[in-house]
Amino acid sequence: MDPELVKRARDGDRAAFASLVAASIDALDRVARLITRDPERAQDAVQEALIKAWRDLPSLREVDKFEGWLRQLLVRSCIDELRRRRRLSVEVELIDSMHPHVTDAAISIADRDALERGFRRLDPEQRAIVVLYYYQGLPLEEVATALRIPAGTAKSRLFRAREVLRAALEADARTVTAGGVA
Amino acid sequence: VIDEGRAVDQLITRWLREDAESPSVTYTAETLERLERTPQRRAADSLRRALRIERPIFATVPRTVQLAFVLLLLLLALVTSLLIVGSQRRTVPPIGPAGNGVIGYASDDGVTLTALDGSATTTRLRGLGIDSNAAFSPDGTQVAFLSRRPDATSTQGAARLYVAPLEGDEPARDIAGSLPVWNWDDPDVAPAWSPDGTQIAYTAFDLQSNRIVIAITRVDGSGATTIVPDEDPLEYTHPQWSPDGHWLTFQAFTRGVIGHGTRLVLARSDGGDRRVLAESPTRSFSFSNVAWAPDGSQLAYHIDRGPTGDGYAVVRYDLETSIETPVNPPDTLGIDPVWSPDGGWIAYREELRSGTAWGVVVVDATAAGRPRRDLGPVVDCRMAWSPDGQYLIGYAVGCEGRLVVVDVDDPSRVVTLDAPGARGVVSWQRIPPEGGG
Do the Cβ atoms of B12 and A170 come within 8 Å? Predict the structure, then answer.
């Protein structure tokens, strides 16, 4: 992020903030889609995060922390979004599957389905940790900062989440094996 | 196993990257339009924001009515707390400062015991292969730890609870019976000794009901009882005994249901008289580290204030008045409080809201008003006091492989101990004061 743009936006320059939005919205949307597993929820979360960012930008003292700060806002918005929409059933969420276009054969459909099932079992914070760590490749310290939790807690939560995903893959493998024998 | 783990990691990464493939967003213009209608907050609004006072809620209500409403709430809280706490038994401190014995931790090699200077290190008391969370009994004569087989494939019910005397060659014995430990070596789930050393409470996985419950068993493995949540999918975890041994606190956590909060529950050790003391609006690690004051009058814990509170805070909870008192300053985050053995201090970890490092802070837990002590970013996980209250121990930065001991009076005195593969809590043996450390 251009620190000069951030500074100008902090001083109330809407055009500067619009430039920041244009530069970051695609990446924010990708992260939000991965966490929420729903394009509409992702859109709501991204817009909410950007509006909060604009509204509270004058309180940001160090402009070079804008990116991490925006990430924090996005993660919080995604988590809030998932909680607000909790009444939607799992079945409805599954209908919202967001990757019908993927044809890459690198990951089998079975593994993909297993990971999807496992991921949906994670609570919102765990989803965010998995996405920031595995997709964005952030070190655990930065993941912890984004969620405002200590690094040790982030590590523990990542461990739990990874176990859920691994168990889902293993359960799926067992099903496939059993099906093959039968 | 490592290769298999890496394969899972790579699979998750590839899956997420493939899923992230999507066209550019189509709502940029709409977002900018919404932003056009949003004013920036002036700096003068910061206090109101910090206090989470939202104009729309109270803007139309006269101030006198607001004040009356707040006073009414306070009165109701006072009456409720008197009614609730009135039935609680007053406690006498059964524990306090003691002498420092050996330090214990568990790893794949079993339970390792070592002196503060790193000498006299021994490793024994093996369980099933992957051991964790060693905890000495209050009198320092026994150690409990968790263990699971290396080839276990399920996270549910694969771990066991072991106990062994520290003296002699007696092997560790499995006392979990039909109630295996839940969540194997998760560092947040450790066995909790009753103050009289006759029972252990732990987070168990009830194989019959597939529920996560609190199990309480005698040290010989007999007489196991459970405290089962009233509703499914609620689960009870992280039990802690009151100093008089009559009460337990534990975390109530709702698995798999988005939007439910996390609660702190108090119950008699037989599960009766259950009541919710505090609640966090988020499904979080709130109440995973509840510390009883040695005199049993207060609790200290961290709580995630959630979407309206923005992060973890350490608070003290007065069991007589049901009043929560903040421990860390309002512009900081706080976690992992631990009460000193004499009850005079609370140590916890604190992060400035603007920063990324967590430092250890020790604050006065009495009314004496002694100044706080900032010990720096020395302990990263599982902090505990030495039995004599002179030191704090825990994992060094990174939370694995190294333990660190810091002198509370002189934070420049730091001892680092190699603890390869250590898992879960670190425990410091209590011995009679004349035994030295």
Answer: no
